[in-house]
Amino acid sequence: MASADTLRERSQTTSSPAPRSDVDERRATAWIGQGVVVEGRITSSQDLRIDGRVEGTIEVGDHVLMIGARAAVKASLVARSILISGTVIGNVTATERLDLQATGSIEGDVSSPRLVMVDGAVVKGRVDASGNRARKTQGD
Fold this sequence. Notes:
Elements: H1 4-14, E1 30-32, E2 37-43, E3 48-50, E4 53-59, E5 64-67, E6 72-84, E7 87-89, E8 92-100, E9 105-107, E10 110-111, E11 115-117, E12 122-124, E13 127-128
């Protein structure tokens, strides 16, 4: 019969690793740091990471948008790929992929052909992950 220590070791070595995102959080070339508050429209022609507070609209076109675990965003988001670890209130459109981490939450409508949600993530709104390329709709 195996001891409790042996069983603990086995469970630690055989447990599945947490799902990983294709998005490298370190690759952001533009950054809104923790403690920074931005109100208005943000457009970027490069990858963007947000760790502060943003209210308005965020559009990064054909790039990656990362919302850090401590970020508080009240804005509509549009990007090729979006990784959310923090809180977002607003509609989210990812034209390629949306990754919602365990600490991430969205209150708003979501549109992306690929949607990855880790256990613990929260979405309060409509979800369109139909496989068609997501398109920005009028009014977003």
